[in-house]
Design a protein that fits this description.
The chain contains 10 helices and 4 strands; from the N terminus they run ββαααααββααααα. By secondary structure, it is mainly α. The protein has one domain. The strands form 2 sheets. Strands 1-2 form a two-stranded antiparallel sheet. A two-stranded antiparallel ribbon has the order 3-4. α4 runs parallel beside α6 and α7 runs antiparallel to α8. It is globular, with a radius of gyration of 19 Å. The chain starts with 8 loop residues before the first strand and ends in a 9-residue tail after the last helix. The relative contact order is 0.23.
Length: 304
C-alpha cells in the first residue's frame, strides 16, 4: 500500500483512488471504530443499518470525503444487517414476507441512486442527506402518537400480517400492513436515496412502514434491518466499481459495526417504543441540520 498527501493519488491493491486530505493512522482508526460501534447500536435499535449516523459523523467530524464515507457505510450496513437481523428474527420482529415484497423496488432504486451518487457534487450529497434526515425526524415526531394503531382486525388478502411478543410491554402485538401499494412506491424512493447516501434505506423505510403502513415501530425496525443489508450490497458494488471504497476507512467501520449491532438489536427488546422514537428524532435532527449547514458552507465550531 502506498500513501501520499493532499492532492496526490493513493494506490491501494493496484487501484488508484483520488483522496481528500485525509490519512488514517492507528489512533484515528480506533476512533472510527468506536464511532461505528455507537452508530451500529442506534442503527440496529431503529432498523436504520447504522449508515444514517456513520456517514454524517465521518464527514462532519473526521473530514472524510463524502463519497468515501458513503462507500464505507454501504459495506458496513451489510455487516450491521447480517448481525442485527439475526437477533430481530429470533425476536420475531422481522416480517419476512413483507420484506421480500418491499425489497424488489428498494433494490432497483438503490442501483439507480448509486449510479447518480458517484457523479454528484459533494455539496449536493450533503444537502440531500441533511434534508432526508430532517424530514424523517420531523415526520416521526409529529406522528409519534399513532405508533400503536391497532390493525389486528384488518383484512389481510396478501397474508402480510405479523405477530410478535413485546418484552417491554409484555403484550402480543398483532398487526396487518395497510396501504401496501403506497408502501411499494415509497420503497422505490427509499432505495434510490439509500443508493445515493449509503444508508440502506431504513431512514425512509422505517418511518414509511410506521406512518403509512401502520406497522409497529419494532416490527418496522426488524423488517428494515433485514432489507437494508440487501439494498446496501447493490450500492457497494457501484461504489467499488468507481473506486470509492477505501479499506482504511471501511475496516474500522466494519469492526465497529459488527461489535455494536448485536447490542443494539438486544436493546430493542427492552426499550419502550416512545423512547426509541424520541432518540431517533433528536439524533437525526442534529445531524440533519449540521449537514445542511455544511452544504451551504456555513461553518460551526468543530469538535476535533
Amino acid at each position: 500500500m502506498v500513501a501520499k498527501h493532499k492532492g496526490e493519488l493513493r494506490a491501494i491493491n493496484s487501484y488508484e483512488v483520488e483522496r481528500d486530505p485525509y490519512l488514517v493512522d492507528w489512533t484515528q482508526a480506533i476512533e472510527l471504530g468506536m464511532v461505528s460501534i455507537g452508530a451500529a447500536v442506534l442503527g440496529s435499535m431503529l432498523g436504520l443499518g447504522g449508515g444514517v449516523f456513520l456517514v454524517p459523523i465521518f464527514t462532519l467530524f473526521f473530514g472524510i470525503d463524502p463519497k468515501l464515507a458513503i462507500g464505507a457505510s454501504a459495506i458496513a450496513v451489510v455487516t450491521n444487517s447480517v448481525v442485527g437481523s439475526t437477533v430481530h428474527l429470533d425476536s420475531r420482529f422481522t416480517n419476512l414476507r413483507l420484506a421480500m415484497l418491499l425489497q424488489i423496488p428498494t433494490a432497483a432504486g438503490a442501483l439507480v441512486g448509486a449510479l447518480l451518487a458517484v457523479r454528484a457534487p459533494d455539496r449536493i450529497l450533503n444537502g440531500l442527506f441533511g434534508a432526508v434526515l430532517t424530514y424523517a425526524a420531523v415526520s416521526m415526531f409529529l406522528r409519534r402518537k399513532v405508533s400503536h394503531v391497532d390493525t389486528s382486525q384488518d383484512p389481510d388478502p396478501m397474508m402480510l400480517g405479523g405477530v410478535y411478543h413485546d418484552p417491554a410491554s409484555q403484550k402480543e402485538i398483532i398487526y396487518v400492513p395497510r396501504h401496501v401499494r403506497r408502501g411499494l412506491g415509497i420503497s422505490g424512493l427509499a432505495g434510490m436515496l439509500s443508493g445515493m447516501l449509503g444508508v440502506g434505506g431504513g431512514v425512509i423505510q422505517v418511518p414509511a412502514m410506521n406512518l403509512v403502513m401502520s406497522i409497529p415501530v419494532k416490527a418496522a425496525a426488524g423488517t428494515s434491518a433485514l432489507m437494508v443489508g440487501m439494498t446496501a450490497v447493490a450500492t457497494s458494488f457501484v461504489f467499488y466499481a468507481d473506486n470509492k471504497i477505501d479499506p482504511q476507512v471501511v475496516l474500522p467501520a466494519m469492526i465497529g459495526i459488527f461489535a455494536g449491532a448485536q447490542v443494539g438489536s438486544r436493546l430493542t427488546r427492552k426499550v419502550r417504543t416512545d423512547r426509541l422514537i424520541i432518540l431517533f428524532v433528536l439524533i437525526l435532527l442534529y445531524l440533519g441540520f449540521r449537514l445542511i449547514l455544511e452544504a451551504l458552507n456555513i461553518d460551526l465550531p468543530s469538535i476535533r
